[in-house]
Amino acid sequence: xxxxxxxxxxxxxxxxxxxxxxxxxxxxxxxxxxxxxxxxxxxxxxxxxxxxxxxxxxxxxxxxxxxxxxxxxxxxxxxxxxxxxxxxxxxxxxxxxxxxxxxxxxxxxxxxxxxxxxxxxxxxxxxxxxxxxxxxxxxxxxxxxxxxxxxxxxxxxxxxxxxxxxxxxxxxxxxxxxxxxxxxxxxxxxxxxxxxxxxxxxxxxxxxxxxxxxxxxxxxxxxxxxxxxxxxxxxxxxxxxxxxxxxxxxxxxxxxxxxxxxxxxxxxxxxxxxxxxxxxxxxxxxxxxxxxxxxxxxxxxxxxxxxxxxxxxxxxxxxxxxxxxxxxxxxxxxxxxxxxxxxxxxxxxxxxxxxxxxxxxxxxxxxxxxxxxxxxxxxxxxxxxxxxxxxxxxxxxxx
Length: 399
What we know:
By secondary structure, this protein is of the alpha+beta class. 29% of the residues lie in helices and 26% in strands.
């Protein structure tokens, strides 16, 4: 029996509602600008307190506005209903390998966060509990899920990839398409009950599923008591891992003191002449301070592969020990791979931040090894691309 199931009652976009997920932004003003330019975007429902007309409200106070926006979108034809469907998903762009996925519901009780916890869905990162609470509150208010958890099928990925490619090729014109901020085209097709739906659901649930994106959303499903959560099951051939960097808006020490503290902790710190870029391989992180860029080899700590990942060392040695900052400190912004190194260093040069930390992408080997050991990746360490688009397929929750 598979852990992947049809969506009992889905709402499928008719166009214009697609959106980046709520946690893909380094600057809240970007969210407001997107909602202002496209009022039908699902982002106005996912982040109601960032909509132009509700700025100043807290997230919880803005929830009634989210409920009203979703009701309006359903009433004005922005979504059309469907019953007992899975949804074929294709993401394509010139010069890129085509990505495939399957929108479906996945059993929440299959989530495993440790080796002694049974389940086929492996959640692999620490989370920020405040974000989880927001997702729980949103789902309770809306009675719908708008953003999927991206799950990587590790056991039968190649078979699933081939089956999804064949299914989309023979499915005819898509039910809807959407173009994202990077120029990628997202297309969806409905697939109702029958042997093909059954076969794809079995393949999608035919091996361990790793949470590639949506750790907060998956924990929100558990915390909120949802029996199933909305997911896109994708394949290893459909994704890549990009850098996940950090900005610090305000330092707790001077730049010179920071460098001294790192060296005192055993780090090798070397000044960089010229632009500061994302390192091409792990082992060294790059820092951009107001007066200088540095290449830093952080000292390894007692422990194994996980404890000595660059992102773990940055969190422990740089943020906690040298700066005294907890990972959830509001002065730290986690910046995904859609933002280039020039954007991060530009924030420092413009005085909007005091430190940029550029970190090489986690390797697939490290990611897989940590997950197979049922250990947790450091917070915000894997930026998978392409991202599943929110607001294309909405799952209505049973009351």
